[in-house]
Design goal:
There is one protein chain. A four-stranded antiparallel beta sheet has the order 1-2-3-4. It has two helices and four strands, in the order ααββββ. It is α+β, with helices and mostly antiparallel strands. The radius of gyration is 37 Å and the shape is rod-shaped. The protein has two domains: 1-35, no CATH class; 61-146, 2-Layer Sandwich (Pantoate--beta-alanine Ligase, Chain: A,domain 2), CATH 3.30.1300. A hairpin with a 2-residue loop joins strand 1 and strand 2. The chain is 39% helix and 26% strand. It is found in: Cell inner membrane. Type II secretion is composed of four main components: the outer membrane complex, the inner membrane complex, the cytoplasmic secretion ATPase and the periplasm-spanning pseudopilus. This is Type II secretion system protein I. Keywords: Cell inner membrane, Cell membrane, Membrane, Methylation, Transmembrane, Transmembrane helix. The chain crosses the membrane at residues 34-56.
Length: 148
């Protein structure tokens, strides 16, 4: 270190040197009491904003998938309810295709039931497909019923 700087640079945490005193330059070193530089703040802000945007995108995807899962869960419940009706009704569903609408969970669902004779001639295969109002598949189920 050289002699004390006449401009008081040492008091402010800057290293003084003969060159800085002679030409008015100060050293690039600084003490911790002065905080961050503008470029450091800009880099930190950029990193934070990238992380925040990634979290927002993740939350959006989570909300979307939660809605899809809720639709599929209710659609599957509708399919199971129709399967229970087909299995517990004393009269077996007729062979062929039947369509209908149900309301469950405050929404309307469209279902299709297809009934065919299974490869084992003593069984009836019942395929049930449920769609939402927009026609998107929401649930499906296949059950077998013994023929009498």
């Amino acid at each position: 270190m050289s002699a004390p700087d006449r401009h008081g640079a040492a008091e402010h945490g800057f290293a003084s040197s003969r060159r800085s005193a002679e030409y008015g330059f100060t050293s690039q070193r600084r003490s911790a009491e002065y905080g961050f530089t503008l470029i450091e703040l800009m880099v930190a802000l950029a990193v934070f904003s990238i992380a925040a945007l990634a979290l927002l995108r993740l939350e959006g995807a989570t909300l979307t998938s939660t809605g899809v899962l809720a639709d599929r869960t209710i659609g599957q419940i509708v399919a199971r309810n129709l399967a229970v009706e087909a299995l517990t009704d004393p009269v077996a569903p007729s062979f062929g295709e039947a369509r209908g609408r149900e309301e469950n969970g405050g929404r309307k669902w469209t279902w299709t039931r297809r009934s065919v004779r299974a490869t084992d001639l003593n069984l009836q295969q019942i395929d049930i497909a449920v769609t939402d109002d927009a026609g998107r598949p929401a649930g499906s189920l296949t059950v077998f019923r013994a023929l009498q």
